[in-house]
Every structure is written in C-alpha cells, then in structure tokens.
Amino acid sequence: MKIQPINRKTVGYVRVSTADQAREGISLDAQRARIEAYAVATNQRLDEIVVDVGESAKSLRRPGMRRILAGVRSGQIGAVIALKLERLTRSVQNLLELIEIFAKENADLISVCEALDTVSAAGRMVVQIIGVMAEFERAQISERTAGALRHLRRRRQAYGHVPFGWRRESDKLVEEREEQWALNIMSRMRSEGHSLTQVGCWLEAQGLTPHQGGKMWRKQTLAQVLSSRMAVEGNT
Questions:
Q1: Is 205 in the same domain as 165?
Q2: Is 118 within a domain?
Q3: Is 17 noted as a catalytic residue in this protein?
Q4: Buried b (16+ CB within 10 A) or exposed e, 99-121
Q5: Which of 123-127's residues contact partners 24+ apart within 8 Å by CB, and which partners?
Q6: Burial of 73 (0-12, 13-18, 19+ CB in 10 A)
C-alpha cells in the first residue's frame, strides 16, 4: 500500500468555459467564494484554488485538472472541492475515471452544490448516478436541437450562417443554382479521388468564393462545406 504524506493538501477547483464566463452565478469569483465558504463551514483548511479559464469540461486534458491529478497521484493532494460536478467534467466516462483515481489514491472528491463526496461507497454511487442523469439530459437536449434543425432545413428556413449552395431571402433559404452545380461537381471530384486542394483550385478557377469571406479555399472550409447537413440533406 502506498504511504501517503501526513499533511496532504485540500484544493479547490474552479472552471469556466468561454461560453460560461459571462453567465451569472458560475463566474470564477462566485465559484471561489462558495468553495471558500464551504471550507470554513466544514472546518477544512483550503490550501489552494486551482483555476481553469476558457476550458471545456468535455475532456480532463486541462492545465488545472492535470495539475490536480498529478498532485493526487503523487500523494500531495488529499481532497478536491468543486462547486458542482459539471465544473469537474460533463462526461460520465471521465467522472468514473476521476472517482477511480481518487479512490485508488485514498483522496476525497467533494461537490458543494450536490452536497456529495466520494469518501464512502454510497457517496461514490450517488455521484455516479448524478453524472449519468446529467449526461442523459444533455443527450436529450442535443437530440431535440438536432431534430429542430432538421425541421428547419427541410422547410428551407434560414438559421445561423447561410451555407454554400444557398442564399437567404427573408427567413427562407433558396438554392443558389451555380453553387448547387458546384456542390455536385465537388462531390464527384472527391468520389473520384481528387484532393481538397484540387477541389479548392477548381472552385477558385470558377470564380466561386467561400461565404465566410476571402478568395482562397482552405481545406477545413472545403471539408465543412462537403460534410454540411445542407449539402448532404439539402435535396432530400
């Protein structure tokens, strides 16, 4: 059995993604204040608060999270406090990975809002259940959004930026004949083994430019055009 240091650190963890930063209630300062208040209320020494700014919770590959996991694995960190589980991760798979790492190193993972920790087997089970339900809810939202967008595409209603092959007339999308012709040629070229660079050169020779602006076609832009739902489903 690994011998842990006697005075392991208790660390807070706060995170905001780019989209979250302006939202009330989950700012860095708000998270920090709630974690500090929790530590005082539970008579815990809070040694440090680790911060991840502009980082998504889809992966554990964040600078702050990596520091924490390194500290847990080395035995320097004995407890991590976060405001919510979603600040730690939005993936059930990653949540299970965190729980396994913390259990192996005999460290505590604590969520303030859910009033949960992984000290006990029951606590670990409840954390897992909440993580599963949260991911299920996000999947349902994603399915509903995808269904709504399919409905808009089929009705040729405009939303977001106007895709290549189409033009906006009021709130409707109308086929742009020359670009639709180009889409068919582009798809045929790709099926015949032509590279994206070759497709881009052909488009430039035809005088067709990206809707995002500029005259040059980047490989990423071409790949997005050819794989877009409007290109694939637009005529279905």
A1: yes
A2: yes
A3: yes
A4: bebbeebebbbbbbeeebbbbee
A5: 124/99, 127/85, 127/95, 127/99
A6: middle
Residue 210's identity, in one-letter code, is: P
* Predicted confidence (pLDDT) per residue in 172-229, tens digit: 777 888 888 988 899 899 999 999 999 999 998 888 888 877 778 888 888 888 887 6
Query: Do 86 and 175 lie in a common domain?
Result: no
User: Are residue 120 and residue 42 in the same domain, yes or no?
Assistant: yes
Domain shared by 40 and 108, yes or no = yes
76 vs 152, more confident: 76
Catalytic member of 17, 27, 56, 187: 17
The answer to whether the beta carbons of residues 128 and 95 sit under 8 Å apart is: yes
This prediction has a pTM of 0.52
Q: What is the pLDDT of residues 131-174, one digit of tens each?
A: 566 666 666 666 665 554 455 455 544 444 677 877 777 667 77
| Residue carrying structure tokens 């059995």 | 1
